[in-house]
Each structure stands twice: as C-alpha cells, then as structure tokens.
Sequence to fold (128 residues):
Amino acid sequence: MYDRGKIIIGLIIGLGLFLFPFYYNKGEAKKAPEAVLTDKAKAAKQCIEPKEFMRTDHMKMLDVWREDVVREANRYYKSGDNKSYFMSLQVTCMECHSNKSKFCDQCHNYLGVAPYCWDCHIEPKENK
Ligand code: HEC
Ligand code: HEC
Ligand code: HEC
Fold:
C-alpha cells in the first residue's frame, strides 16, 4: 500500500529543494550597487537635475556640455530648477562625486560600461 502522507511530504521537500536556488537569491542576484554619496553631495541634497533623469541621461548631458563648451564656448548650464552650473566634468560633476570609484565606477563596472573620458580628463584623487 502507498503511504500518501509520506509521498506528499516527499514531494513538498523535493519542490522546496528544487526552488531553493531561486528564493535564496531573491532580491540579491540582480540588485545594482547603491551609489555612494560624498559628504559634499549629501549636503547639496540633489543633483543638477532630478535623480531619475541623471541616472538615465547623465551621459547625454555630458555630451551636450562638451559640445556647448568646446564648440559654442558657452560655459554655463541652467538646470530645470533655474540654478546655474559651470559646465565641467572635472570641476562640477567630480567636485560632488569625488568618490569616483564608489560612485561612477561601481555602477559602470556592474553594467559593463567603461567611459574613455579619463584618458584625458583628470580623475579626482581618492583616499582609498
Ligand atoms: C552639487 C553637487 C552635485 C553635482 C555638481 C553633481 N551631482 Fe550628481 N548627484 C548629486 C546628489 C546629491 C545625487 C543624489 C540625488 C538624490 O538622491 O536625489 C546625485 C545623483 C547622481 C546620479 C544618480 C545616482 C543614482 O543613485 O542612481 C548620477 C548618475 C549623477 N549624479 C551624475 C552626475 C554627473 C554626471 C554630474 C555632472 C554633469 C553630476 N552628477 C553633478 C550631487 C551632485
Ligand atoms: C546608477 C548607475 C550609474 C552611475 C552612478 C554613473 N553612471 Fe555613467 N553610465 C551609466 C549607464 C547605464 C551608462 C550607459 C551605457 C550605455 O548606454 O551603453 C553610462 C554611461 C556613461 C557615459 C557614456 C559612456 C560611453 O562610452 O558611452 C559617461 C561619459 C558616463 N556614464 C559618465 C559618468 C560619470 C562621470 C559618473 C559619475 C559622476 C557616472 N557616469 C555615474 C550608469 C551610471
Ligand atoms: C582625447 C582627449 C579627450 C577625451 C578622451 C575626452 N575629452 Fe572631454 N575634453 C577634452 C578637451 C581637450 C576639452 C577642452 C577643455 C576645455 O576647454 O576646458 C574637453 C572638454 C570637455 C567638456 C567641457 C569642459 C570641461 O571642463 O569638462 C566636457 C563636459 C567633456 N570634455 C566631457 C568628456 C566626456 C564625458 C568624455 C568621455 C565620454 C570626454 N570628455 C573624453 C579632451 C578629451
């Protein structure tokens, strides 16, 4: 005779073992690293534009800045909230995000992006 109780318990344990790798990694496997802010960035509270925009569009913004500075000789950017920023990768972005390895690099490494900007532009000095 079959022992229905044991079979069901066996099936439940088997299913649990089968699914273990899935729920064990839940919320961890795909989580991107948190961007670490410097004290200076924390004090500023916000980026040049809202965080969501910066997250998706900072590379386009840098591209526009470069064009504006190099081609148009225009040095100032007016943000959505009407603040004026000196357009410079080194002097503006990297002033607030001087922890490049924990901010820019950490996210880029995770995503497999390697901007070539630092061939010419000087990276901020970090105390590692
Ligand atoms: C005045 C200081 C300051 C300047 C200048 C600045 N940032 Fe930011 N940045 C911040 C702060 C503060 C945050 C976090 C904003 C938040 O949490 O709402 C941030 C967020 C970001 C994010 C999103 C990070 C995330 O959590 O996803 C990116 C990308 C970014 N900045 C890139 C840049 C770039 C590129 C420049 C130059 C074009 C720049 N920032 C200039 C202060 C600054
Ligand atoms: C929250 C994650 C995140 C952070 C933080 C971040 N980036 Fe990026 N960055 C990206 C993504 C995503 C791309 C786009 C990759 C693509 O489109 O192929 C990118 C692309 C770029 C590019 C264009 C590279 C290329 O080869 O096209 C530049 C330049 C750049 N980031 C500069 C910076 C700088 C400078 C900082 C720090 C101030 C920074 N990023 C912080 C996610 C991030
Ligand atoms: C071959 C060398 C070189 C590379 C690589 C390079 N740049 Fe530049 N960049 C320059 C020079 C030279 C200037 C002009 C400096 C000036 O007039 O202040 C400049 C100016 C800029 C400016 C405006 C002025 C400033 O102080 O920041 C931005 C923004 C900029 N570059 C962004 C980038 C980004 C983003 C990348 C990578 C995607 C990059 N550059 C890669 C040489 C380079």
